Amino acid sequence: MRNLWVHITGPDRPGILGHFLEGVAQLDLEITDLEQVSVGDRLILAVGVRAPSEIGIAHSGLTELGNELGLAVELRDEVRETRGQDTVDLVVTVLGEPLQAKSLAQVGHTLGRFDANIRRVETLARRRLHCVEMLASANPKTRRELSRALLAVAADHEVDISVQEEGLGRRAKRMVVMDVDSTLIQSEVIDELAAYAGVGDYVAGITARAMNGELDFQGALRERVALLKGLPESALAEVAKKLDYTQGARSLIKVLKGMDYKTAILSGGFTYFTDRFQAELGLDYAYANTLEVADGALTGRTTGPIVDGQRKKELVREIAAREGIRLDQVIVIGDGANDLPMMGIAGLGIAFNAKPRVREMAPHNINRKGLDSILFLLGIREEEIERMEAAGG
């Protein structure tokens, strides 16, 4: 017996696969593998079969079948890929606005330089954003070097490139945890409060340095909150009216909730605001710092433990354990240095439009406008996102 690949190409139409496989069955050929893709109105079908050593009858029968269906048929001896312990399947996701041919060419050249064989290419998005997903077999010993080389391509071509190992771990995510300031929403709340108190520029400078990892977060928070002493409590409501969600935030949460994900926000900001975001978006968990108020004004202090980077990491562990979710099933999204600890323990840690030092250290980077672009790293197609957004209005 011989193992063969039957390659079929031609115009696509409904029912053609069933007709062809019916013919294969009549030739008494055992099917060992099957792959099909349609590109535009063209069909590309590969059928693995086990045939007698003398393949003349099978060849003539399949060719005649192809002619009847208007398909071109080619038979080749099966060549087993040398995949297994010495290779690892990687999913390379490339995002751009737009995505140029030269960028994709450089990705292809880089994969080739590391002897990574591209086995599948699929377009996930082509309207709001252009996204291409590649599945490649690579040498696990050079995976880190390959990832670094692809990140260099991303920087040179102003695209985003994510490299993940293919497998159940990638497809079995069950929880998303997000930072709030400059991630879920567009601004830094404490800077907005400081502007209301007349110390906006000074506080914004501290915030930028703290988020880039240049300052101790707890000390920087205490210093900034102290400058808010005497601010009327009513100012919180005024600032809340001005806060806007990041583009794509509602879409991201709606789609993931539709997939039964648990959702959480962990913020170095303040519960006054995160409680409102939780209620508006229907989030499962929300943790932040609590501003102390006395006689209708801020005291310049917080109460309770400060939610810094270490506390965020602890909270991810606590929430995951409470929900019976493994850490490798958790997605973490943030932009600041205080988000790196929780990114580090998650199955998928993503720096979103992050500070420079954070981008250097984060496992994955997305520098697009829309927070929902993160869905493409899960292999979700643009059409699927749009259907889930439309569901329920």
Reconstruct the topology from this structure.
Elements lengths: L1 E10 L4 H11 L3 E10 L2 E10 L4 H14 L2 E6 L10 E9 L4 H13 L3 E10 L3 E9 L4 H15 L2 E6 L2 H4 L3 E4 L1 H5 L4 H9 L2 H12 L5 H10 L7 H9 L6 H10 L3 E9 H11 L3 E10 L2 E7 L5 H15 L6 E5 L5 H6 L2 E5 L3 H6 L2 E3 L15 H9 L3
Parallel strand pairs: 9-10, 9-13, 10-11, 13-14, 14-15
Antiparallel strand pairs: 1-3, 1-4, 2-3, 5-7, 5-8, 6-7, 11-12
Helix pairs in contact: 1-2, 3-4, 7-8, 7-10, 8-9
Fold and architecture overview:
By secondary structure, the chain is of the alpha/beta class. The protein has three domains: 76 residues, ACT domain (Alpha-Beta Plaits, 2-Layer Sandwich), CATH 3.30.70; 79 residues, ACT domain (Alpha-Beta Plaits), CATH 3.30.70; 216 residues, 3-Layer(aba) Sandwich (Rossmann fold). 39% of the residues are buried. The strands form three sheets. The protein has a seven-stranded mixed β-sheet with strand order 12-11-10-9-13-14-15, with helices on both faces. A four-stranded antiparallel β-sheet has the order 2-3-1-4, covered by helices on one side. It is built from 16 helices and 15 strands. Helix content is 40%, strand content 29%. The mean pLDDT is 92. The termini are far apart.
